[in-house]
Specification:
The complex is a heteropentamer. By secondary structure, chain B is mainly alpha-helical. In chain B, strands 1-2 form a two-stranded antiparallel ribbon. The N and C termini of chain B lie far apart (48 Å). Chain C has a domain of 216 residues. Chain C contains 19 helices and three strands. Chain C has a three-stranded mixed beta sheet. In chain C, helix 12 runs antiparallel to helix 13 and helix 12 runs parallel beside helix 15. The radius of gyration of chain C is 21 Å and the shape is globular. By secondary structure, chain D is mainly alpha-helical. Chain D is built from three helices and no strands. Chain E is mostly helical. Chain E has eight helices and no strands. The radius of gyration of chain E is 26 Å and the shape is elongated. Chain E starts with a helix and ends with a helix. The chains are: A mainly alpha, B mainly alpha, C mainly alpha, D mainly alpha, E mainly alpha. Chains in contact: A-B, A-D, A-E, B-C, B-E, D-E. The interface between A and E is large, with 74 and 74 residues.
């Protein structure tokens, strides 16, 4: 196995070095990737077409919105997959493997208080990241992950069941699904209004403002959808992994 | 709405998947009908698309209304319209089969199973219809993640195999991603057609980066399609995963990867680059020959029914890879036709293996012991599939071999022709061994231990939800065999502009 | 090119027995109705074939294109002299064999008779399909169909012996057809780019080089392993595990004759005799056939099991036919074609006799048959006539075809092969005649002294005995009236016989 | 440049160290370094995501699995 | 030093290869399943590093428009374009102008294609046209230079792609960990060779 690994690495490495000989220099503005109309269009036209200053957000949620929808689906798939693989439903609970010894957590005043103070701030920040994704780094993914992380923090600080009182399993999944439905909903709405899938331009019929505003607002909408899904699934994955699928007690 | 058909192909299974996942917790019984309905709708959408393509030529659907290369386009021509119909149909038939088996094989995770199943179907359909190289990667990962999970729902061995698959699959997908990155660094584009235009416009024929991009993409896809030396993940995962999972994955996953390879070779790099600038045709055909022989020998060594079939998949992958690299129009036609016919053939035999497992609880080939008497209808379905894999007219398998061998002779790759013939003969041996056991109803002399023992006599015909897909598949195999001319006409229309080298070298 | 008319009769003739499968399956509960369905189908089929006879004898061919299945390739039927000859033999003998089947199967109370009868009908369809194929592709299609449809028949007993026999049977037939014929056919298709229609004088001339032609010829001749050419002959003795009606019809008529029929087709319709003559490549086939004739005859001499002896005799006789076409002289080819019919009639008689003996007395081995002629005089009389026909002695049809073969060999100037003919005829006589002789004149004086009396006879049931009498009669009739067969054969070499 | 060298080091160490928990932690450090590198290259969104996902959530996932299974590693 | 200079031109590209190979080696030859998964993550991050490196441009900034640019663009539409981009030197701006002009030409060509191919989107295309015309107009009117210089910003596209790749990476990691846990539940170990040993000796 070691030999095989080494061989693979050597061959692949050799190939990659071969490829690298022909690369443009690092940071070269005239490299094809930088000078081709594709990236230039995104840089120069994004604002004119969507009125979103953060090009990454605009490309993510609009030009390549189709990709992003599936990116969300990847997350969702992972969540469902992990439930499918690990989750043990009902009474069919096997005893934990004896090597895994989990001590019941004692409430710790410092940790608990810190968390109590921190978590709302984290969540607020997450919301800001989602909402302000148009103008600054951030967006649905980042915000969603941070929001999900706040619940993970809660589960770590207290225990999983406590966190689950706030976000029970079913509700979590519903939230994830709703997130994707929001995203796809924008697509379907544009289908119904006579445009192509995810063509936010035609949404002017239901969103106030001109075409650019429709793009901008729809992007915010889909980012919120993404945030929902990511939040939910991050926590769902954590609960499954940390409780070995039983959803009883975490690590 | 017909101009929206391309996106609907995907939307039906994809949105239903999420719906099933949510609703499943409350109403598990609704999962199956929803699955069937959405896949049925997806078939309709694929057929609509196919008809449109046949009437009006290539469909270019701009998602989000952005013209490529700025936005993502779905680009549907004769090739992927056909493959999409195949994928949707196989998924549909496999879903029907799942009904009675899911609960027992996946530990009461029906809704999750169906959700993942639909997502897998959606992922594969998405891979087939997309015209964007990076979008393809994302969908590849959806298909891969669902596959891992669907397999890991099986028994111990399947779980380990799923892990192996996860590692290998990630390597494959990452290689693909890296290759796309290399193309991007040299062309600045992600749209498949645009990449090719840029490759030509910028004169990148000799660029080592593009060469390595080609290797990385091809090898990455080879890993994913289990081309011979890279096949290690396949046999155990398909053989020990739930039969329901392998009945969709075995026919589709490898075949869709071959489609992607064809797409990459023809649309992204272009045949001139792939076959003439990089003159590796002979090496790859030799690799394919080795793959065919290795798959056949591997299959001969197996006592486990499904494992034997998985080795046949490896051999069939060799057929198609070799067919593509014959650099011959007929060979390419054969390879593409084989994508379609092999999907149904594999489905047919895997469904049969699933039914046998469901009925007898045994995995080895002696499980079919005396089944001709007990389940004649099932056996008829199986025989059609088996004949097709052997290559007996008028099944689809015969015609794909017909074209492939023709391509092999045309391009002078005799080793490939011989390998095909040997593999046909091995298939004949394998399947007649099974037919013999089923027909003679003799227990093996060595006193092989059966898990089932005396309840053997109670075996009767399979339930209707398992018979319908099996017989449906068998009928399709015969139909695409008998009407292969029309199918091939579509494929040849598609291939015509590529102007592949024809004639005897 | 001969004039041709389009008519769906060939297709119908082919499908008649296939269509019978459904009623046979439906009527499985009442054997009598089931059997009558077979007979109805048999007569319809025979009628359809005969209805085409005048047209064919008139020099017109009948064509029908069913379905264009591949670009440039169709499933098409064409009836010409050779096809007609073979179709006539097969369809007429089916009726007789069906009758015989009833006697045999019921006499032995075999299981799964319905399946047996059904697959029998399918096999016949395939045989007629081969006979009436218009191109190489259709021929191949029906050839494969026949291999597979006969498998359940060969392995009918479903015991260990049948399993081994069936395994040999299929592995030989499938491996040669997939391994040899298929690539050869595809190669021909590629080289000529044509629809591979059999044409008088062949269609391959000018498309392939000498070396390629030789390889193709070898691939085709050995690939159609049903013709039993050594070294691909072992399936035939192995297939003798089948019930005797199968051996009778399939291994004296349908299957093996399909093999040689295909070889003749390839020689006359694909390569063309003229082309082969100029290429001078058929000699090797001729010698292979000659070798097979001698060796199989010698093996036959050593066999004690009657059916096995007949099987090896069949191998030898088939090679006569191949040798005939490989001689490439008109007369030899006519002889070959006629021999298909003559040998079929003779050999089916012998097989039916073997079956009748087994049904009536349970005896399989020649050594046990001493003096049996007194118990089964009719059977053994027929057996003797059949033997004469196979050997080629008057007053049987076998003489006619042998005559043509021998004179054909002279035409071709192949003296050595002429000797092979003569030697093998001796050998034929040596392994066939003693059986009949010993049955009537046993060595054992005890048996010899038993007086013959009709009362002591223990013949098999009527459905068993009647067909073999008819075929024996046919062998005699063909001696007197061989002309129309020769005419049909003559059509293939360009003159009226 | 320093970051790049440290990046290689952390990647290497996280795969060498026998204690999986440390491996996970070092992997977190690796991710954080990666995130810094990307931020330096102007890919703020990517860096942001990597900080949240790679260094945060991935590490937590790894740790929870390690605690649920076994800490030791043979290589 | 010279060698290092030469290396430095493509240093990122070297590093990604090294890291990637470390990850690949771990994936192929490590025995511990979690080690494999860490290797996988390292492997994937290396690819992300490669992509991000593609998008890097010397002297460019993050792909978010500054406030005054945004402001300026708004004004451009209203016909009141303020002078901005003063930090560019004169020649640079001129080059950029030339580039921008050709680039706009391309855009129109593409959009025209677009209109031909897909008629039902005509509305949208016209909208886009109008917008382009506006910005062109602003440019031609010579309101003191460009809206945006493409060389001023990093390539946003690769960032988008890599966001996706990161998410895919974490999803794969999660599924991998779940399978690892399941394997541990079934075999009591996460060492691959021990699992294989159990399967071989066990009577499964």
């Amino acid at each position: 196995m070691k030999f095989l690994g080494l061989l693979t690495v050597l061959i692949t490495g050799f190939l990659l070095i071969q490829a690298e000989r022909d690369f443009p220099d690092w940071g070269d503005v005239n490299s094809p990737a930088s000078s081709y109309k594709l990236s230039q269009h995104y840089i120069t036209q994004t604002f004119a077409e969507t009125s979103v200053p953060n090009m990454v957000t605009a490309v993510l949620a609009d030009y390549r919105g189709y990709d992003t929808m599936f990116e969300t689906v990847v997350i969702f798939t992972a969540g469902i997959a992990i439930i499918g693989i690990l989750r043990v439903f009902g009474s069919n609970i096997k005893p934990d493997h004896p090597e895994v010894v989990l001590t019941k957590k004692k409430p710790d005043l410092i940790v608990e208080t810190t968390c109590r103070l921190l978590i709302p701030i984290i969540q607020l920040f997450a919301l800001y990241v989602v909402a302000h994704g148009h103008h600054s780094p951030g967006g649905g993914f980042q915000g969603g992950v941070i929001f999900g992380a706040s619940f993970i923090l809660l589960a770590l600080a207290r225990d999983l069941q406590y966190a689950q009182q706030w976000v029970p399993e079913n509700r979590i999944l519903n939230l994830a699904g709703i997130g994707i439905f929001i995203y796809a909903g924008f697509g379907v709405a544009s289908l119904l209004l006579g445009g192509n899938f995810l063509d936010y331009g035609v949404l002017t019929a239901i969103i106030p403002g001109d075409v650019k505003d429709a793009h901008s607002h729809s992007m915010l909408g889909v980012e919120i959808g993404v945030a929902f899904t990511v939040t939910a699934i991050m926590f769902s994955i954590y609960s499954s992994l940390s409780s070995n699928g039983h959803m009883k007690e975490g690590i | 709405m017909t101009e929206q058909a391309p996106i609907l192909i995907l939307l039906f299974p994809f949105l239903t998947a999420i719906f099933v996942a949510l609703l499943g917790a409350k109403v598990p019984a609704a999962s199956w009908p929803l699955t069937i309905a959405s896949l049925g709708a997806s078939i309709c959408a694929t057929l609509t698309t196919l008809i449109q393509v046949l009437e009006n030529g290539t469909i270019r659907y701009y998602v989000g209304g952005w013209a490529p290369p700025f936005g993502i386009e779905l680009r549907i021509d004769g090739l992927n319209a056909l493959v999409a119909v195949t994928v949707a149909t196989v998924a549909f038939l496999g879903a029907i089969y799942s009904k009675d088996r899911v609960e027992s094989e996946t530990e009461n995770k029906g809704p999750q199973y169906y959700a993942l199943y639909l997502l897998l179907a959606a992922g594969l359909l998405g891979i087939v219809i997309t015209g964007d190289a990076f979008n393809l990667y994302v969908l590849l990962e959806i298909a891969a993640l669902t596959s891992y999970a669907l397999l890991a729902m099986g028994n111990k061995r399947a779980t380990l195999a799923a892990f192996k698959y996860l590692i290998m699959g990630t390597i494959g997908a990452s290689f693909y991603l890296l290759g796309v990155g290399y193309l991007y660094i040299k062309t600045g584009s992600l749209n498949m057609v645009d990449i090719q235009e840029q490759l030509i416009a910028n004169g990148l024929q000799d660029s080592s980066t593009v060469q390595v991009a080609f290797i990385m993409i091809t090898v990455g896809l080879w890993v994913k399609m289990a081309f011979f030396p890279l096949h290690a993940w396949l046999p155990n995962s398909y053989a020990f995963g739930p039969t329901t999972s392998s009945s969709i994955m075995a026919p589709l996953v490898t075949k869709v990867m071959i489609y992607v390879m064809v797409r990459m070779v023809l649309t992204v790099f272009g045949p001139v680059y792939a076959f003439e600038v990089l003159d590796w045709g002979n090496i790859v055909v030799w690799l394919a020959v080795i793959a065919i022989l290795a798959g056949s020998i591997g299959a001969l060594a197996q006592k486990d029914l499904r494992k034997m079939l998985t080795f046949l998949i490896i051999a069939e992958v060799g057929y198609m890879v070799g067919g593509v690299w014959l650099v011959d129009e007929t060979g390419m036609t054969g390879a593409i036709y084989h994508i379609i016919s092999d999907a149904f053939m594999t489905l047919c035999v895997f469904l049969f293996a699933g039914i046998v497992f469901a009925k007898t609880g045994a995995r080895d080939i002696y499980a079919v012991d005396g089944l001709f008497k007990k389940m004649p209808i099932t056996m008829i379905g199986f025989i059609v599939g088996a004949f097709s894999l052997i290559g007996i007219p008028p099944t689809a398998g015969f015609f794909s071999k017909w074209y492939l061998i023709q391509g092999g002779i045309n391009s002078g790759n005799w080793e490939y022709v011989i390998a095909l013939l040997i593999s046909s003969l091995v298939n004949a041996v394998l399947f007649f061994r099974i037919i013999e056991i089923a027909y003679f109803g003799k227990k093996p002399a060595e006193g092989h231990i059966h898990h089932h023992g005396d309840d053997h006599t109670k075996i009767s015909e399979a339930p209707i939800t398992q018979l319908i897909p099996l017989l449906g598949t068998a009928a399709i195999i015969l139909l695409i065999g008998i009407f292969n001319k029309d199918l091939v006409a579509v494929i040849q229309d598609f291939l015509e502009p590529f102007n592949l080298v024809a004639g005897i070298r | 090119m001969n004039p041709a008319i389009t008519s769906s009769t060939p297709l119908l003739a082919c499908l008649a027995s296939l269509a019978a499968v459904l009623p046979i399956l439906l009527l499985r509960k009442s054997p009598n109705l089931r059997e009558s369905a077979t007979f109805v189908a048999g007569f319809i089929k025979f009628g359809l074939v005969v209805s085409m006879l005048p047209t064919i004898l008139g020099g017109t061919q009948i064509e029908y294109t069913l379905w264009q299945i591949l670009p440039n390739l169709s499933i098409a039927f064409r009836v010409d002299g050779l096809g007609m000859l073979f179709g006539l033999v097969a369809s007429s003998l089916w009726i007789l064999t069906s009758l015989y089947t009833i006697g045999y199967m019921r006499g032995l109370k075999e299981h799964s008779q319905t399946r047996f009868v059904a697959f029998f009908a399918v096999s016949l369809s395939a045989t007629i399909g081969v006979a009436f194929s218009a191109n190489l592709f259709t021929l191949y299609l029906f050839y494969e169909m026949l291999s597979l449809a006969t498998y359940p028949l060969v392995t009918h007993h479903q015991d260990k012996e049948a399993r081994t026999g069936g395994r040999t049977y299929l592995s030989y037939l499938l491996s040669t057809s997939i391994g040899f014929v298929l690539p050869a056919m595809i190669f021909v298709f590629l080289k000529t780019g044509s629809s591979m229609e059999f044409a008088e004088g062949g269609f391959l001339a000018g498309h392939v080089s000498g070396k390629e032609a030789l390889i193709l010829l070898l691939l085709f001749t050995f690939g159609f392993a049903k013709s039993g050419l050594m070294p691909f002959h072992s399936w035939l003795p192995a297939a003798m595990v089948a019930p005797t009606p199968v051996s009778a019809l399939l291994h004296a008529v349908a299957v093996v004759k399909v093999g040689v029929f295909c070889v003749i087709r390839v020689f006359t319709g694909v390569f063309g005799l003229e082309f082969l003559k100029t290429m001078d490549i058929a000699t090797i086939i001729a010698w292979a056939a000659a070798f097979t004739i001698v060796v199989s005859s010698l093996i036959a001499l050593t066999q004690d099991n009657l059916k096995r002896r007949l099987a090896f005799s069949t191998i030898g006789q088939l090679s006569y036919i191949i040798l005939g076409v490989a001689l490439l002289s008109d007369r030899a080819v006519i002889g070959s074609m006629a021999h298909i019919a003559m040998h079929a009639v003779g050999k089916i008689t012998l097989f039916m006799c073997a079956g009748a003996i087994f049904v009536a007395s349970g005896k399989k081995y020649i050594s046990q048959m001493d003096g049996l002629g007194k118990k089964m005089p009719i059977t053994f009389a027929a057996f003797t006539i059949g033997s004469l026909s196979v050997i080629g002695l008057p007053p049987t049809g076998g003489l006619i075809s042998k005559f043509y073969l021998v004179t054909g060999a002279m035409d071709a100037g192949q003296t050595a092969l002429l000797i092979v003919f003569l030697v093998s005829t001796m050998l034929n006589a040596a392994y066939l005649l003693p059986i009949g002789y010993r049955a009537f004149f046993p060595k054992d004086p005890e048996l010899a002294r038993q007086p013959f009396s009709w009362k002591n006879t223990e013949e098999a049931s009527l459905p068993c005995v009647l067909p073999l009498c008819i075929t024996a009669g046919l062998a005699l009739v063909l001696f007197i009236k061989p002309q129309f067969l020769l005419n049909l054969a003559g059509l293939m070499v360009g003159h009226g016989g | 440049m320093i970051i790049l060298i440290f990046l290689i080091l952390t990647a290497f160490i996280s795969l060498r160290v026998k204690d999986l928990l440390s491996a996970a932690m070092i992997f977190g450090v690796y991710s954080l370094l990666m995130c810094l590198l990307w931020a330096g290259m102007g890919a703020v969104d990517v860096a942001f995501t990597e900080a949240a996902v790679g260094a945060g959530v991935s590490a937590v996932f790894l740790i929870s699995t390690i605690l649920r299974t076994s800490r030791r590693s043979s290589d | 030093m010279v060698a290092i200079e030469a290396l430095a031109d493509k240093f990122n590209y070297w590093v990604y290869i090294v890291i990637m190979m470390i990850g690949l080696y771990a994936m192929v030859s490590k025995n511990n399943l979690i080690k494999k998964l860490i290797g996988m993550s390292v492997f994937q991050t290396a690819i992300i590093l490669f992509y991000v490196s593609i998008g890097y441009k010397d002297e460019a900034t993050i792909p978010i428009l500054y406030h005054d640019q945004v402001h300026g663009a708004h004004h451009a539409e209203e016909g009141d374009h303020s002078d901005e981009g003063a930090h560019h030197d004169e020649t640079h701006a001129m080059e950029a102008i030339a580039k921008e002009a050709t680039h706009h030409g391309n855009d129109h060509a593409v959009d025209a294609d677009h209109a031909e191919v897909d008629e039902h989107e005509a509305d949208h295309v016209i909208d886009a046209h109008v917008m382009h015309n506006e910005s062109d107009h602003a440019f031609e009117a010579g309101h003191g230079g460009l809206d945006i210089d493409p060389n001023q910003f990093e390539n946003p596209l690769v960032h988008v792609l890599m966001l996706t790749a990161i998410v895919v990476g974490v999803a794969t990691l999660g599924v991998g960990l779940a399978i690892t846990q399941k394997l541990y539940g079934e075999f009591g170990t996460i060492e691959e060779h021990e699992i294989i040993e159990q399967l071989r000796t066990g009577n499964d």
